[in-house]
Amino acid sequence: MPMRLNLKQKIVSFLIVIMVLFQLNVFAEAQLEEVKEIIKNYYVENVDDSKLNVNSVEELINNLNDPYTAYFTKDEFDSFIGSINQSYVGVGIVVEKCEEGILITSVLDNSSAKQAGILPGDVIVEINGLSIVDRSLEDAISLIRGEEGTYVNLKVKRDNQILSFNLKRLKIELATVKGSLIDGHVGYINLMSFGENTNSEFLSVYNNLKSKGADFFILDVRNNGGGFLYTAVEILSNFIGSNTCVVLKDKYGFQTKVKNDVVPSRLINERFILLTNGNSASASEILAAALKDYNKALIIGNRTFGKGTAQSFFVLSNGDILKLTTQKFYSPNGNEINKIGVLPHIRIYEDIDKVALMLTEREPVADKTNYVKLVINGKMYYINLKNDTYFNKLISSINNCEMYIGVKNYWVKRDLNYYKQKENAFVEVKRDINNKIKEIEKYHTVDAAKKSNFNTKYGYVAVSKLNFRQIPKLKGKVLFVLNKGTKFEILESSMGWYKIKYNNRIAYVYGKYIKLTK
């Protein structure tokens, strides 16, 4: 009897296993068909049937050869969204791999690690009794994180001591935007991700810096891999209002011009420089492309990553989520971004932030000596000639702009290409400024001598017709025209120009076209 009972139990157990496996297969097949249908209808490109004829969702997604399409369980999806929002469950430490284990480089305020007394420089050697000396950084982070409210035990090495800490895992939310004031008037804004609250964080940082005196801003999206498309649209609306932020196109060629539904009451008008590099992707590229199209920022750095595709989330019947590439996106002017990226106005590979900061000088009010003015896309940027390294990098990288050198109270236009051909543009500009100063001083000396020896008070027109101008410049407004031989009173002279009086009207005329008389 016992043997029969055992046999019966085994048969029942076997049947249960068969039924469970059968149900799992049925669920898996249904799930696979569901994903296939979504891909057929919504994937950004038409998919060949041979790629759809597979036995698993994993194989199906692999066949798309699309790094941005992914399958998530509910927990995996929550972690993915948390990474965009800079939100996760942990103990509040920043770590990196070292020879002895995992080095704690910083401890976040208001975290369980901070409250327990963990310090930067501590080295984690055990997590929950497991040695992590030979484990990867990713493994260690996975062991530290877990469900909110649970505990993790860390053994850390501090000097020659081994200390044990029992830490509660808490939800930690990091800012996606940080800012600082530089040189008293430059607002530096580091935008690290495009999360759900990033626009409000951006405005808070921007307004705070503005209240402290910032009148020029540097917006940094280097190494920002993107986030939510609508967040990029929200941020852009602060600059461009109700204009198109991005153009989306699906597999059927249908285009959508995306604008923000809510337009801010006050738009941002301050000058902005945007910093980009090869890791600026997705939403960062939407931001960069639109700011470039609308001439709202000068872009400095490297070509962006070139991820010009948008993904949509599909909740499946089993609660899992499919992240699927459904559209390509283009700049407001229709420029393609996918696999191309956004080109900066000034392409620089090193010291990007240093070069950008050099362009944030305020306009010199009086003496302009040793300043350079660049006019780029109709906007003026001023440089104080203090650092030859960064200046030379800028000049070698910049194109299509007007250049002026400051000489006393004047701006003197120069040829940018002339300096680009020089081995050391900084030295050449300095030399040109000094030479111009000498010319001016020479003119002043000659004019002073002329004034002291000048007994005549009159002049007359030596050409058929002569323009008399409002200011002593050839492009100055013409006040009146006098014919040859017309006599006028001379009041003073400077740098080849004469200030004259005719019929009680004051004007300026260039000395080359007049004759002097007593």
Automatic annotation (TrEMBL):
Residues 91-145 form the PDZ domain. Signal peptide: none annotated. Residues 456-518 form the SH3b domain. InterPro entries: ClpP/crotonase-like_dom_sf, CtpA/B_N, PDZ, PDZ_6, PDZ_sf, Peptidase_S41A, SH3-like_bac-type, Tail-specific_protease. SUPFAM superfamilies: ClpP/crotonase, PDZ domain-like. One of its GO terms (molecular function) is endopeptidase activity. It comes from the Bacteria. One of its GO terms (biological process) is signal transduction. SMART domains: PDZ, SH3b, TSPc. Keywords: Hydrolase, Protease, Serine protease. One of its GO terms (cellular component) is outer membrane-bounded periplasmic space. Belongs to the peptidase S41A family. This is Carboxyl-terminal processing protease. The lineage of its organism: Bacteria, Bacillati, Bacillota, Clostridia, Eubacteriales.
